[in-house]
Amino acid sequence: MVILGIESSCDETAAAVVRDGRELLSNVIASQVDIHARYGGVVPEIASRKHIEAVAPTILKALGDAGLTLEAVDGIAVTQGPGLIGSLLVGLSTAKAIAFARRIPLAGVNHLEGHVAAVFLTPEPPPFPFIALVVSGGHTTIYLVEGFGRFTVLGQTRDDAAGEAFDKAAKLLDIGYPGGVVIDRLAKEGDVKAMAFPRGMRDGLDFSFSGLKTSLMVMLKKRGAPFSGRELNDVAASYQEAIVDVLVAKTLRAAAMAGVKRIVVCGGVAANSRLRERFRSDAAAAGMEVFVPPPVLCTDNAAMIAVVGTHLLKEGRRDGLGLNAVSRWPAPVAP
Ligand code: KG4
Ligand code: ZN
Questions:
Q1: Is 180 touching ligand 1 by the criterion CB < 6 Å?
Q2: pLDDT tens string 188-209
Q3: For residue 78, which of 2, 147, 19, 9 has the smallest C-alpha distance?
Q4: CB 143 within 8 A of CB 153
Q5: Tens digit of each residue's pLDDT (9 = 90 or more) over 7-61
Q6: Residue 104, helix vs strand vs coil
Q7: Atom number in ligand 1 closest to CA 9
Q8: Which end is more exposed in the chain, N or C (fewer Cβ atoms within 10 Å of the end residue's Cβ)?
Q9: What local confidence, expressed as pLDDT, does residue 40 receive?
């Protein structure tokens, strides 16, 4: 089964072709990052307009890279939500138009389930059940995943997402956008113990990152001047460590509580090099196995959407032309 995936929930226009939900034939991502960088964050109206320009060429490139034409495509999977409504509608309308014109089946996919499903494109994915930490610009949630569409929330952020904590810090430090990528790079040359940042909500499985951001704000105010050079590296490393510490500790705690030894880490923040390193070492020490897709499959992409779509279509799901975008939509829960 060859599935064309389309993703446009935020600021990346993406298309990918996946065979049998396992084999990646192409993966094209048109990023709008340079445009939004000027504003220090995604501007929804601009994102929608850019998706309109990029969507057809991105799909054509994905088909071209896979060496296929639309005739070879058995079904279309498209991100239905959650995300920016105007952005979602571009991918959704395009997917519906192709499905209607070519008479191929269509499946609307949950973006968060997509992030988790990225792991099935890795050479040795875990069997169900596993614990999944979905950590992105909009979400920080720990799930028990027992199958496709069978998610149970074990913990989640009470305020900012981890990606937001990175992006807002980068804005405060005036070091560029997207914040996670810049802080990751600067932190490599910094000392994780140089500055003391708070670890929010030590107990339980929920997260809180707003206090961390505030402490950086207070630090900057007291100082009265921006950080630069070596000190900037230290701030980045220490701040990043505060985020990584709680993400790793709570995910391992959730796995221990659920009696599950396999952990999937996914979503844009899972591209963070320190988070990947710490998960590997701390999970091994706890006797757990950790599965992290390569960075290009952690940040937004359409291959992960095609994987979920393959499963839905195989189960007989057929979405009609009335399929609508959903801006707020938790991952599909266990029945
Ligand atoms: O999954 P994603 O691409 O889009 C959403 O669904 O939100 O995640 C985007 C988030 C942004 O907050 C970005 O700063 C963060 O992922 N991110 C990173 C890294 N690369 C992307 N955060 C930390 N380190 C990175 N290397
Ligand atoms: Zn995402």
A1: yes
A2: 999 999 999 999 888 999 999 9
A3: 9
A4: yes
A5: 999 999 999 999 999 999 999 999 999 999 999 889 999 999 999 999 999 999 9
A6: coil
A7: 6
A8: C
A9: 86
* Whole-number Cα distances in Å, 254 to 83, 94, 153, 241, 283: 27, 39, 10, 20, 12
Kindly state the DSSP code that residue 332 receives in the 8-state scheme.
P
267 lines ligand 1 (CB under 6 A): yes
User: What secondary structure does DSSP assign to 160-187, as a single string?
Assistant: --HHHHHHHHHHHHT--SSHHHHHHHHH
Q: What amino acid occupies position 193?
A: K
Angle at 167 between CA 164 and CA 169, to 5 degrees: 105
Whole-number Å distance, alpha carbon 298 to ligand 2 midpoint, is 8
Residues 6+ positions from 138 with CB-CB distance below 8 Å: 10, 82, 83, 161, 163, 164
**Proportion of the chain above pLDDT 90, given as a percent:** 96
Of the bound ligands, which one is closest to the alpha carbon of residue 163? 1
CATH fit for domain 126-292, picks 3.30.420.40, 1.10.150.320, 3.40.225.10, 3.40.50.1100: 3.30.420.40
Q: What are the residue ranges spanned by the domains of the chain? A: 2-117+297-314, 126-292
Contact 279, 248 (CB under 8 A): yes
Domains 2-117+297-314 and 126-292 belong to one CATH topology: yes
Among 167, 269, 273, 301, the mutation site with the greatest number of ligand 1 atoms within 8 A of its Cβ is: 269
For ligand 1, the distance from its centroid to the CA atom of residue 70, given in whole angstroms, is 31
Does residue 333 register a pLDDT over 90? no
Whether 272 lines ligand 1, by a CB cut-off of 6 Å, is yes
CB of 144 closer than 8 Å to CB of 7: no
Hey, what CATH class is 2-117+297-314 in? alpha beta
Which protein residue has the closest C-alpha to ligand 1 atom 26? 272
State which H helix or E strand residue 130 sits in: strand 130-135
Distance in Å, CA 204 to ligand 2 centroid? 25
- Contact between 58 and 329 under an 8 Å Cβ cutoff? The reply is no
Question: Which atom in ligand 1 lies closest to the alpha carbon of residue 166?
Answer: 14
